[in-house]
Amino acid sequence: MCSRVLRVRGQAEDSGLQDRGQWASKAEFLLAVAGQIIGLGNVWRFPYLCYKNGGGVFFVPYMLFLVVCGIPLFLLETALGQYTSLGGVSAWMKICPLFAGLGFASQMMILHSCVYYIVILAWAFFYLCSSFQMRLPWSHCNNTWNTDSCRGFDRHNMSDLSENATSPVIEFWEHEVLGLSASVDRLGSVNWRLALCLLLVWTVCYFCVWKGVKSTGKAVYVTATFPYVMLLVLLVRGVSLPGAVDGIVYYLKPNHTRLTDPQIFFSHGICLGSLTALGSYNKFNNDCYKDCFRLCLLNSSTSFIAGFAIFSMLGFMAQEQGVDIADVVESGPGLAFIAYPRAVSMMPLPQLWAVCFFLMILMLGLDTQFVSLEALIMSVSDLYPTLIRRRHWREILLLLVCSVCFLIGLLMVTPGGLYVFQIYDHFSCSGASLLLLSVCQSVAIGWIYGADRFSNNIKAMIGYQPLCIFSLCWRYLTPAVCIGTFGFSLMFWSPLTLANGVTAPRWARAMGWMLTLSSVSLLPLCAIYSLMNTPGTLQQRLCLLCRPAQDSTLTDEHLYTGTHLTFDLGTKKPKDPVKDMV
């Protein structure tokens, strides 16, 4: 499959095939990429990591990782898609067939993320609908799901409550929304209200991707810009609250002792293949080099500013309750569905701020979801263009993928669904897996294909040479930092602990590792498959598979002598691949 001849610009040879499509304007590309990379993690993960790992000191390793790994890999993936005009799988099959597994592994990760990531949006939609009530249901203890241990938090000191007391926001989250069971072994029946929310979100995603780049390009005008309006509104409101300054100081206060935590390196994740697919819709001469800097700056700036909006609210909540800010800070779903709802319930006009916040969460997650879905469908379409790009087969494939993901996602809207969600989140797209893909990408471009050769390809598109630091990163710095970070993650590895301190049973951990292996195992499996199905000796096979696919045909004379000339895609200068490999 890796020896298949793929078209450089993806144009259909058969008039019966539908056109692959391109972005109608540069703005569509920028908004689509912004929607993909700026998601829920910018709001609920980055601020927490910044606070947890040293406040202002956190920006030192963050910027180091961004410059050495984030920006070079961002440019690598975007330029690769733009140069080949192919999706994540076909681009790697074309540029370096031996590493075709990179494309398959990244698409498998996207498929896993499509299953569980959208469940967050179903939760957010449930909260959004609940925000239109006259009195927010998580602000008081007079609901049918509240227990005798429930204690309100309306402007009194929470430190005076007993240890057994629970807050109405936690009981709303665990009893009304999730119906949380005591263990992962008790999944229970499907929560039909959450299932309906999940179905509605999947329906929106389907029609956003329905017509390919044409519908996606139009949808991002709303989904990528609206969160910034809401974030600005929440930021202005947050900094005007009493206690906001204390929260912001707590967010940025330097703490040098926290720098030993290796999790500081996981705040900028890529390598999911989406950037390659989005870049493939660009015109050949688009300046992806400058776009890379703009988008990475936008991503980091959004994360930084979101921290002010979040911690100003948390500072207000801590002052209202008379507790330390550390007692109210949470990460992930705990921030979006417990800490922040509790904060807005203490403000005037709480319904307004709750609607703004959950609309922002929905839009942030929605564009990440459907852009990832578009990248997955386009990768499959590029693999089988004569089949998928005929009549309505693309829409049928999209419907099939959405339906299967929806059915699997129903497991996560059961009483034990939160545990399944956490297992998916921890194992399917883990930091260690992304680091492994980062190393392989750097090796494939920096050493096999050639960093200088790839820089020449970028020059052929944009008209000037990228900075030499990029070649240095692809060859040495990026793989070195990623390998070092991977080693840190192994040193500080700890068993997965689920919600409410529940320890994941052995079968759940086994299922998690199967999710991990379902993607990363494709790297060696595809390489072995390609080696077994390529003619010649082992050395000849390696030479063939380390060249672009369009140059991977050998004559009998080449097989006999073991030599074959290939042409640099940028300079058209003949090379001896065996000599280049040495």
From TrEMBL:
Paired cysteines (S-S): 141-150
UniProt keyword terms in alphabetical order: Disulfide bond, Membrane, Metal-binding, Sodium, Symport, Transmembrane, Transmembrane helix, Transport
Topology relative to the membrane: Multi-pass membrane protein
Pfam families assigned: SNF (PF00209)
Binding site for Na(+): 35, 42, 267, 299, 364, 367
Tagged with keyword Manganese: no
Localization per record: Membrane
TM segment ranges: 56-76, 82-102, 114-134, 190-209, 221-245, 265-284, 296-318, 352-376, 396-420, 432-451, 472-493, 513-532
One function term, GO molecular function aspect: metal ion binding
GO cellular component: cell projection; plasma membrane
Primary localization: membrane
Family: Belongs to the sodium:neurotransmitter symporter (SNF) (TC 2.A.22) family.
Name the record gives this protein: Transporter
Species, as recorded: Cyprinus carpio carpio
